[in-house]
Specification:
It is a single chain. By secondary structure, this protein is an alpha/beta fold. Strand 6 and strand 7 form a beta hairpin. Bound molecules: calcium ion (CA).
Length: 195
């Protein structure tokens, strides 16, 4: 995906840019609303990460203008933990989602996948088993409403168990499937970069 970051905080902007590039995305980073305006006019972006407190203009105003102009690019606004009003302002102005600073890169990636999937008109698939929810695209597990951190091997194991729910699986079966899955995963970097 091509992603536009609009953020004047150098540490946060740099961190997000590096992280998203490592995930295989093309990233442009600008620090002012004026530069962001020029960028969205000149280039197609799959998603925008928009800080609401920019040095030259209010992110909410910028976003409202884009929506008035008919720009439908998915936008995730970045706000401070206690800035409930600006978060609401951002959502009302047409943001698709928000993230609270400091931004966690895995969460950022998951939100980006979610907003781009929504705009592509594809509902997010969710696997459910009792009180467990699993979002395969984001590799996110939620147990009784709380997200659970999983390593990639653990999430592969969980996928296997969910795909064969209520069945007894042997250790050999699991080991064989996991090893095949991780080989596939290691050789599929091009797929990841196309997300
Ligand atoms: Ca700021």
């Amino acid at each position: 995906m091509r992603i536009l970051i609009v953020e004047d905080d150098p540490m946060l902007g740099d961190g997000m840019q590096r992280g998203l590039k490592l995930m295989g995305h093309a990233v442009d980073w600008f620090r002012t609303g004026a530069d962001a305006d020029r960028a969205v006019s000149a280039m197609h972006y799959d998603a925008v990460l928009l800080d609401l407190g920019l040095p030259d203009q209010d992110g909410v105003t910028l976003l409202s203008r884009w929506r008035t102009q008919g720009r439908q690019t998915p936008v995730v606004v970045l706000t401070a933990r206690d800035a409930v009003q600006s978060r609401i302002g951002g959502l009302d102005a047409g943001a698709d989602d928000y993230l609270i600073k400091p931004v966690d890169l895995d969460e950022l990636a998951a939100r980006l996948r979610a907003v781009t999937r929504r705009t592509a008109g594809m509902p997010e698939p969710v696997w459910r088993h009792g009180p467990l929810e699993y979002h395969p695209a984001a590799r996110l597990a939620v147990w009784r409403g709380k997200s659970v951190d999983l390593t990639s091997r653990e999430s592969m194991l969980l996928e296997l168990l969910l795909a064969h729910a209520n069945r007894v699986l042997t250790r050999e079966f699991l080991r064989d499937k996991l090893d095949r899955k991780s080989t596939r995963l290691n050789s599929s970097h091009t797929d990841i970069s196309r997300m």
